[in-house]
Fold this protein.
Amino acid sequence: MNDSVTKGQFITIEGTEGVGKSTNMAFIEKWLINAGKELIITREPGGTELGEKLRAVLLDAKEQSMSDDTELLLMFAARAQHIHEVIQPALDAGKWVLCDRFTDATYAYQGGGRGIELSRIAQLEQWVQGDLRPNMTLILDLPVDVGLMRAGKRSTPDRFELEKHDFFNKVRDTYLARAAEYPNRYRVIDASPSISEVQQSIQRVLEKMV
Ligand code: TMP
């Protein structure tokens, strides 16, 4: 990428449950800092004070009556605030932004998982983001049952983690379909080998960006 030396890049990390986002986010953060990049680390839903409050509502396992449209709109409400307060100012200042999930998660979870038409999500994306899209999206990919087994070893399930296999298979299929449709922006990283092999694959992507 020619302009990457001077301009901040917007990188997002995606995947279904238990694919190892947190470990690999930490690896990417360290790698980029070592490469001399000034970067911010953030996440969705969340990333701002208001966004974190919306996150708490969205993930609350007691919110069983939340409609699919409410869920979709709250995701974009949190995102609008996040872009306004954090992401756009950082990019404008030439910083790199590393974000744990972004709008691809909305396509995958609300679109693929919940069955909301992708064209409606695209309308909201255009409205809330204008031209803002990640420069690079890494999709950590694992068979759903392997990921759920890894994730299951962690704390009490949130509202999404309570979903069934079938839901997460649709989420995964939607991520992979998007990666196949727009190969320039996505890299699918096989998350099944050892951590060091996964991180070598990630490093190869980062080396081309700095
Ligand atoms: P996390 O557990 O990876 O932090 O993500 C929180 C949950 O929110 C995760 O189950 C995926 C879900 N999510 C959506 O459903 N749509 C979105 O747009 C985003 C950003 C996350």
